[in-house]
Structure formats: structure tokens, C-alpha cells
Amino acid sequence: MQLSDQIVLVTGAGRGLGHEIASAFAREGARVVVNYRRSRDAAEALAAQIGPRAIALPADVTDPAQVGALFSQASAHFDGDVTTVVNNALADFSFNGDARAKADAIGWEDFATQFQGSVRAALNTTQAALPGMRTAGFGRIINIGTNLFQNPVVPYHDYTAAKAALLSLTRTLAGDLGPDGITVNMLSGGLLRTTDASAATPQAVFDYIAANTPLRSVTTPAEFADAVLFFASPWSRAVTGQNLVVDGGLVRD
Known about the structure:
Helix content: 40-55%
CATH superfamily: NAD(P)-binding Rossmann-like Domain
Strand order of the largest sheet: 3-2-1-4-5-6-7
Number of strands: 7
Shape: globular
Largest sheet: 7 strands, parallel
Radius of gyration: 17 Å
CATH class: Alpha Beta
CATH architecture: 3-Layer(aba) Sandwich
Structural class: alpha/beta
CATH topology: Rossmann fold
Strand content: 15-25%
Order of helices and strands: EHEHEHEHEHEHHE
């Protein structure tokens, strides 16, 4: 299915990376559901900017009932089922290694919050999307991960563990849903310059990453968003269960 024929849900699309992902799909002619939890004004502004091919809809994607309502509203608005889900929403987190709890201080509640925001949210949206995708014989589920479980240079224990679990879910879902014509993949970035979550990152960290990246730059949200399009496009039709690292070549395994 061409990008221009798809109905795409981007979770957490009111700001940051989600905003750029939604914008990238809109640029290619897709119909876009701009999901938000608290960023109503920003989400509605983005939908208005895109025009009639977009709608801003609220939902806490960790809540199955809210996700079900989100899909129902999206299908009614576009008179069709969601074909593509980008699980981008991030549980509240600040990317500042100096301020994160270390091993002797971090509590299980921190892990639980991140697992809710990554794994449970992806499971909720996947289950809500399955009936429509199975009817169409087509579906694209794209999860947003991190390169930190390959290169754990900062003690984001809770965030990194949750994203690693999301990669495992990505691969098991790919095996389960492949016969239905549904692919499930992950894109993992490093630190992005700049999102709300990375706004607290010291400049020295950005400089260090740029100096150690083959491209000598820190990946931007717009650059990352362009890579997301690949997994929704016809060119990736034989690709599933994969994790593509999009960080300018910093991590290469």
C-alpha cells in the first residue's frame, strides 16, 4: 500500500519527534491521526497546519479503553481503518544522565512507568489495530526504540530496559502477525537534537556524540522521521521483526 493510501496513527504526536513523524507522513499524502495526551494546543495546531487529511485526537495510550475510543474516532472520521501505527509516545522522561537515579537509588515504580509507556501502550494500540489490519490484509506497526540497549553509556536503567522489552515484543509480534500481512519493526535513535525530552541534555553531551559519529552530527527529529517512512512504505514489504538504528552511525551492531 502506498503511503498516500494509508491512515496513520502517530502516538504522542503533539510535540518533538512525534510531531516530525506526523508531518513526514502528511508530506507524503497519508491521512494522519495526531494523538496527544496533554499537548492539545500543539496537536490541534499541527492538524490544522496539515489540513483535512489530519485530525488531532486525545488518548492516554496506556489505557485500553481510551485507545479503543481513539481508533473508533479515527475510523469514523476517515471512513476507514487505521493501517499504520507508530508507537512513539514516551512516558514522562528527561534525558539528563546526571539527574537520573543510579542503581542504588532507582525504584521499581520507575521501571513500571516506563514499561507502561512502552510495552503496554504498544500492546494496546496493536490489539486495537488488528481487526482493521486483518480485514485489509495489510498493516504496519512501527515502534520507536533506543540505541542505549546496545550502547548503554548513561544510566537510564528504567527507560532502556523498557525499550529493550519493546524490541522483544516487536520480534514476537512480527512472527505472530506476519501471516496476516502485518509487519512489525523498530527504529532506534540516539539522542536527538532537540526534543522536549532532550532539552535538559548538556551541550557537552551533544558535542561528544557529534564528534564520535561518522556523520559528525547529532541526528535531528526530522532526519529520524524520514527513516520511519521506510518501514511504512512498499519498499519494506519484505522486512519485519527488524531494528534499524538511526543515529548517524554511532552504534553499528
